[in-house]
Amino acid sequence: MAIFESSSQSKIRIDDTERLECALENAQNINKHTEYVLRVQRGPNKENRWTVSRRYRDFAALHVSLQHANIDLPIPPKKLIGNMQPSFVAERQVALQNYINEVLKHQVLVLSLPVRSFLDPSNYPLTIAEQALQTMSIALRGDGHYELKAALPDIGWRIRKHYFLVNESVSQTNCLLSWQSYGPDYTLNSKDLQTAFKSLQNISVSVFDVL
Length: 211
Description:
Layout: E1 6-7, E2 20-30, E3 33-42, E4 49-55, H1 56-66, H2 86-105, H3 107-110, H4 113-119, H5 128-143, E5 146-151, E6 161-168, E7 173-180, H6 190-200
Antiparallel strand pairs: 1-4, 2-3, 3-4, 5-6, 6-7
């Protein structure tokens, strides 16, 4: 997958629910293939924008990953001969713009990891699920009370929330465990965040009798 991305220096806090807009700015022929330059913007802030280069096969791969949603999307057909001609490239650019416009009309697709990774690969790598599985394996191995049995399919629309089937070692009970990463941006650094979590252990709640 061809990815050449330049991000804004003044990056704002990321919200997974913010609207993404995409415009195919131009196309360029590189090493006997065509790359389409996409300008993507998150939310209303025009400073929060970047560019990503994609080939037709990247659009085709995205289309395959979205077919399970059972939504009719107008992906232009593949062409083997004459696909480098300027007139055809211009025509395909328009068709691909129409395709991505249709994708962004559907909220269920916009919030999916394939679309987010296609438009914003630096913040939404396709390895998010693998990273979650590795983190949980290490965490449970150190705990000793639970055994990780399997990673479960996605539940709901939250991209960064993952679910696992774990087994409690004493009662041999299967449990559902959910895990969510901090995300690409968070307010506190790691040291201050750990201090904040530790301070929660010292919180005491007073109980008053009701007369």
